[in-house]
Amino acid sequence: MTATMTDTPPPAAPKADARDGRSGRSVGQILMIVAGALLLVAAVRVATGANQLTSDGQVSAALGLAVPIGLAGLAGLWSERSGVVNIGLEGMMILGTFGAGWIGWQSNPWLGLLCGIGFGVLGGLVHAVATITFGVDHIVSGVAVNLLALGTTQYLAKIFFSEGKPAEAGGNPKQSPPVEALPDISVPGLSDALQSLENHHWFLISDLAGILGGLVTHLSVVTLFAILLFVGSWWLLWRTPFGLRLRSCGENPVAAESLGVNVYKYKYAAVAVSGGLAGLGGAFLALVTSHTYLEGQTGGRGYIGLAAMIFGNWRPGGLAMGAGLFGYSDALQLRNGGETVHALLLLLVVLLAGLAGWKLYRKAHWQGGTCLIVAALVLLWYLFTDEVPSDFVGATPYVVTLLVLSLSAQRLRMPKADGMRYRKGQGK
């Protein structure tokens, strides 16, 4: 009787997936890909004279923009690895921004950071109760969390920030009073030396100096914490018994329960952690990026984080690359405008030509021909213009995200039971 109430696959003996314990490429292959990408970007910089492509300011800005997206994506990874789709990440980030701004200006930014995480956990628990306990459709619940978070924070902001002491300190119905800044870190001596090398504009050497300089200059402590969270999540989910049990809940919860795993407990834990990570991403926006809570400051980063997670194939390493790519393209259009974005057109031509060659080699003639045509059109655009119109510049990060997702879609593998309803007792 109970088995008919679920969409979960029937019990099956769990099989070890050779790909699940390690990435699809070796460390050497990944390093070669990174080195090739760096050489390509350096060559484009020299050919176009767009020195901002690898400047320390560009890298530092890209890192700051990538952190909240990466944290949102990591939040989605925790949830979906347990089998719960979390469309409500945007709402949990909104709760995090409000919590950080509300407590941060009254006390100190550290308590604001903790409050942002706590507000995100509350949003995650709401989603967990709806989807795990009551079996509500995951997408419907996530959308409801987004709407509930937006309406609640707008209402609370009008109550707490629009009059009295908060208003005197600079608050209004759409923002909190300013919050003290969290400390950042620069490596003495090394930052100046790298900047000196970058200013010579040497091929590859200056590019490396600019990238490293952006990673060691004015680095927020929250950014360092986020990096540790990525490493810790990888170790916990792929190298511990806890992680194995949690991932089994997202692959086959019936089989997991039959082996003694408390599926509800692991799903609740994963979604609560997911909410906390999303709340931390929102707190980063409020405390590091703008030093205040602002209505609408998440700007859809929860959804972009989901896209980065999908691009990363539900793995922390690929997710970090996806978040970094979006952060880089977003920083490029925000800091430098049409002229520097114009240099990316040449980079896009090279990438499309390389992809076309690979598709033709694999006998995928239709796809290869399409890539060649698009590459030719982009090359003409580059040759006959000096900069990208401002109307297109703002869309750069979104176009990059769509291109990357479309090119990586064929190799994706989501958890098998992701988004499926599950009822306790099916595995007994």
Helices and strands, in order, run as: HHHHHHEHHEHHHHHHHHHH
- The strand order across the widest sheet is 1-2
State the distance separating the first and last CA atoms.
13 Å
Beta-strand share of residues: under 5%
Percent helix, as a range, is: 55-70%
Helix/strand-derived class?
mainly alpha
Number of helices: 18
Low-confidence stretches: 1-6, 8-23
Main sheet? 2 strands, antiparallel
Radius of gyration: 23 Å
Shape: globular
The counted number of beta strands is 2
The average pLDDT is 85
Describe this structure in words.
It is a single chain. The chain has 428 residues and is mainly alpha-helical. 69% of the residues lie in helices and 1% in strands. It contains 18 helices and two strands. The protein has helices at 27-48, 56-81, 89-106, 109-133, 138-160, 165-168, 190-199, 205-216, 221-239, 241-251, 253-258, 263-289, 301-311, 316-335, 338-361, 365-383, 390-393, 396-408; strands at 184-185, 219-220. Strands 1-2 form a two-stranded antiparallel ribbon. Helix 1 packs across helix 15, helix 2 (56-81) packs antiparallel against helix 12 (263-289) and helix 3 packs across helix 12. The radius of gyration is 23 Å and the shape is globular. Residues 1-6 and 8-23 have low confidence and may be disordered.
